[in-house]
Design a protein that fits this description.
The complex is a heterodimer. Chain A is mainly alpha-helical. Chain A is built from 13 helices and no strands. The radius of gyration of chain B is 19 Å and the shape is flat. Classes of the chains: A mainly alpha, B mainly alpha. Chains A and B meet through helix 1, helix 2, helix 3, helix 4 and helix 5 of A and helix 1, helix 2, helix 3, helix 4 and helix 5 of B.
Chain lengths: 259, 99
């Protein structure tokens, strides 16, 4: 990783060995995500089929949208043949958490990084790809994200198309087992920092607890899960930031420990 | 044809949501609160999305709960992304033979 604090021309060129390495690491970390995506997208494809979407349309939708909840919501709009405005609002709400993730990610992009890198990284901000990118110390190397994208996105798009085509061919037991892969990855991302920082540990426990409560309490549980995720994220991260403000020096220190 | 219009709207909105902050915030935000807030966002959001969803994703809620516990222990002991994901899948696959 370069030590300079602003982008230098050609810094992220794939001709550089360090960028090739980052790209390979991205591909490596993209494999488990891709496998999880195949399984999840498969079930998404089944929903798309019921909405009257062709396998090719499903492939294109997944390739462009990269969103599980967002696409699922979108396919229900197609199934209902609802107004185009409704599609826009539904997509906006179901994907609103990516707005937060994009804000968080923007703070880790090296100042001066060209727009094209920002846009390609933004294109595939998903729960999983955001998580693995943000888990790396220091400034984000776009090549790491690109490595993960070239593995994960085709899996996501193919899985959707296959689900559209094959419907319920995959054994139920396998779908069930695959469905926890993504959550396992989330745990591998949030638990190690929680072990190092008490505040992060409290944030994680509060996340589990309030998420559970909001799913069973009357009224609150009628809000869609995407919206609940946004509300809880803002409340918990906001409270943590108020009570335990974190300076960028703190962060560098913990990153040194992690590295 | 109508499906393609729906898909185009989905794609445009999905991209705009992700691209706007990344292009808007070109410089580091100096405000300490916002800095801290954005630091905690990934942990809060991933925790919220993991539980209780992991328990609801599996055929047997018990298998999902055990996968959660085993996943936490494995991650605590330092297992990486792929190992933890595989361990969780294996736990569900094996347990669902019995429950």
């Amino acid at each position: 990783m370069s030590q300079a604090n602003t982008y230098i021309r050609g810094e992220y060129s794939l001709r550089r060995a360090e960028n090739k390495k980052a790209f390979r690491e991205g591909m490596h970390d993209g494999i488990p995500i891709g496998l999880g995506y195949l399984a999840v997208a498969f079930s998404l494809g089944i929903a798309a089929k019921h909405a009257g979407v062709t396998p090719f349309q499903g492939f294109v939708a997944s390739f462009l949208c990269n969103a599980s909840a967002g696409e699922y919501a979108g396919f229900t709009v197609i199934a209902a043949q609802a107004a185009f405005v409704e599609m826009a609002i539904m997509t906006l709400i179901a994907n609103a958490r990516y707005l937060l993730m994009s804000c968080a990610m923007s703070q880790r992009v090296k100042p001066g990084t060209p727009l094209v890198h920002r846009l390609i990284m933004a294109y595939d901000i998903t729960d999983e790809l955001f998580a693995i990118a943000i888990a790396r110390p220091g400034y984000l190397n776009p090549n790491y994200s690109y490595g993960a994208i070239v593995i994960a996105t085709p899996c996501w798009a193919m899985g959707t198309a296959l689900g559209c085509l094959a419907g319920n061919l995959m054994p139920d037991r396998l779908v069930s087992a695959f469905s926890v892969a993504l959550y396992g990855m989330f745990l591998a991302i949030i638990i190690p920092p929680a072990r190092k920082s008490k505040v992060v540990a409290v944030v994680v426990v509060c996340g589990f607890l309030f998420s559970y409560l909001s799913s069973v309490l009357p009224v609150v549980s009628t809000i869609s899960s995407g919206t609940r995720t946004i509300i809880l994220t803002v409340l918990i991260a906001g409270a943590a930031a108020l009570l335990f403000p974190k300076t960028s020096e703190d962060e560098e220190r913990t990153e040194d420990v992690a590295a | 044809m109508k499906n393609w219009i729906y898909i185009a709207i989905m794609a445009l909105v999905s991209f705009a949501i992700r691209a706007t902050p990344m292009t808007l915030f070109q410089k580091p935000i100096k405000n300490k609160f916002i800095q801290s807030f954005l630091y905690y966002v990934p942990y809060a959001t991933l925790a919220v999305m993991t539980f209780p969803a992991i328990v609801e994703a599996t055929n047997s809620p018990l298998a999902g709960a055990v996968a959660l516990a085993v996943g936490i222990v494995a991650a605590f002991l330092g297992a990486g992304l792929f190992p933890v994901a595989c361990i969780c899948c294996a736990v569900v696959f094996i347990l669902e033979f019995f429950v």
